[in-house]
Amino acid sequence: MAALGPVAARTFYQTLFDLRPQYRQLFEEDMEGQYVKFVSTMGFLVDHLHDPAVFEHEARKLGSRHKEYGVVPIDYASGGLALMRAFDQHLVPPLTKRERVAWVHLYDEVALLMIDDGVPSGAERVSENQQPE
Question: Structure pTM?
Answer without folding.
Answer: 0.81
